[in-house]
């Protein structure tokens, strides 16, 4: 039970209950005899008010009836229907996050968390912190988001593991956005194994974990494992009633379909997700669907369609003030703009996003501790632009900065491509040995596509 008095007394502490009974009796102008009779004695009420005895449930129900308050309010100090009202306001805050700016919703979640703490409502504390963590993910405050999700896990430590899965998934997502792909996989896979070992095959929890694992698997080059997670997620979907979970699953599965060249199926999967998000009025996730569809068009060579979808995604995310996601979309939009010959516009979009210096240190929005994979992608693009205009020195600096960022994140596919670009540049400038080293680095990362770097795959649940 949470604390609510200055001395840190528990809400159900006999002294707290005694003070509560004394206050309510005095406010109503009742004597101890009037409050006690006919079931109890004035001496019992006196002993109770002094905190020397813990009243039974029957005694509290008698006293509550005489005082004209609810049993729960007398026992805990919580106003009647407080928990129900708080849960309704938490739902409203979640709706505000779906349709508005994350920092506005964050302020509401913080206030509701303080209220839940004051009244010792642990489940509502956890719900408020989960919502606050989701707000911080959107706004790019990844360290604070991780702290919120970890606090939720501590609050729910005695609850069944499926109750903690949303917080674990949130923490894994924060690590993914930071660029810690391997640790994100570790968190998700460990939880899947724990659920299986305990026989807790909860469809919602499993779908959340398998869907969340697709992105880090793909970034690490573990395409087979990502495809298997997508298959399991599709098998679980009919057993899940939450449309937001199903929509998120369709968006994740689309990424594996794109990697397999099945772009028509990927587009169909994204269309399903978009329709669900529209019905639910979840603007951030709807923007992510436009973002992914832009990627699909780019893969198909439809650069004009890709640019349109990515601009839509960027505008939607910017209007939501979802800072980190907006910056990540801008990197992918810059790639399409460069491929369309709009080099100056692409470069103007990229430079404000980046930290200064080839080591990734500096003050830009993206860097080693925030969006490392996209920061590496931005440096790669600036390297390509520099190389196209003949500035090999600047190109090499950007490629090396990208290499430093991507090596920390273990993004195998991106690393291999970058090492090829750097090796080609070094070879053209006459540094053959250095070029060979770059190629070997790329091949080394490509030779460890996930099945060797991640350890055994998590157990497959009975479906």
Automatic annotation (TrEMBL):
Pfam families assigned: HTH_3, TPR_16
PROSITE patterns given in the database record: HTH_CROC1
InterPro entries: Cro/C1-type_HTH (IPR001387), Lambda_DNA-bd_dom_sf (IPR010982), TPR-like_helical_dom_sf (IPR011990), TPR_rpt (IPR019734)
Limits of the HTH cro/C1-type domain: 21-74
UniProt GO MF annotations: DNA binding
Signal peptide: none
Official protein name in the record: Helix-turn-helix domain-containing protein
Native organism taxonomy: Bacteria, Bacillati, Actinomycetota, Actinomycetes, Kitasatosporales
């Amino acid at each position: 039970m949470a604390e609510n008095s200055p001395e840190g007394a528990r809400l159900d502490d006999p002294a707290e209950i005694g003070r509560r009974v004394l206050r309510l009796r005095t406010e109503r102008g009742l004597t101890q005899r009037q409050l006690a009779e006919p079931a109890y004695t004035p001496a019992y009420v006196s002993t109770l008010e002094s905190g020397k005895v813990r009243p039974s449930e029957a005694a509290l129900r008698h006293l509550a009836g005489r005082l004209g308050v609810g049993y729960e309010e007398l026992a805990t100090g919580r106003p009647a229907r407080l928990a129900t009202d708080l849960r309704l306001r938490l739902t409203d805050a979640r709706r505000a996050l779906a349709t508005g700016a994350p920092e506005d919703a964050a302020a509401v979640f913080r206030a509701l968390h303080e209220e839940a703490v004051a009244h010792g409502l642990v489940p509502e504390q956890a719900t408020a912190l989960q919502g606050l963590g989701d707000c911080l993910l959107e706004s790019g405050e990844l360290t604070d988001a991780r702290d919120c999700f970890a606090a939720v896990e501590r609050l729910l430590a005695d609850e069944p593991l499926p109750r903690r899965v949303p917080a674990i998934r949130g923490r894994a997502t924060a690590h993914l956005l930071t660029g810690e792909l391997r640790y994100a996989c570790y968190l998700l896979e460990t939880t899947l194994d724990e659920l299986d070992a305990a026989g807790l095959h909860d469809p919602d929890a499993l779908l959340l974990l398998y869907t969340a694992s697709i992105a880090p698997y793909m970034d690490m080059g573990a395409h087979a494992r990502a495809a298997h997670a997508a298959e399991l997620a599709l098998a679980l979907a009919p057993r899940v009633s939450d449309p937001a979970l199903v929509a998120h699953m369709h968006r994740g599965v689309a990424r594996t379909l794109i990697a397999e060249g099945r772009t028509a199926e990927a587009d169909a999967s994204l269309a399903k997700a978009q329709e669900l998000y529209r019905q639910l009025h979840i603007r951030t996730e709807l923007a992510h669907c436009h973002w992914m569809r832009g990627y699909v068009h780019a893969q198909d060579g439809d650069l004009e369609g890709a640019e349109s979808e990515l601009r839509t995604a960027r505008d939607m995310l910017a209007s939501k003030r979802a800072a980190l996601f907006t910056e990540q979309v801008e990197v992918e939009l810059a790639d399409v703009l460069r491929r369309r010959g709009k080099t100056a516009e692409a470069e103007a979009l990229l430079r404000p996003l980046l930290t200064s210096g080839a080591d990734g240190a500096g003050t830009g929005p993206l860097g080693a501790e925030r969006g490392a994979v996209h920061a590496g992608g931005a440096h790669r693009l600036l390297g390509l632009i520099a190389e196209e205009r003949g500035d090999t020195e600047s190109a090499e600096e950007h490629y090396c900065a990208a290499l430093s960022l991507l090596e920390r994140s273990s993004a195998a596919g991106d690393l291999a491509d970058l090492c090829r670009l750097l090796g080609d540049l070094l070879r053209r400038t006459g540094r053959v040995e250095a070029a060979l080293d770059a190629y070997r680095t790329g091949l080394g990362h490509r030779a460890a596509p996930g099945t060797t770097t991640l350890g055994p795959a998590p157990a497959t649940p009975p479906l």
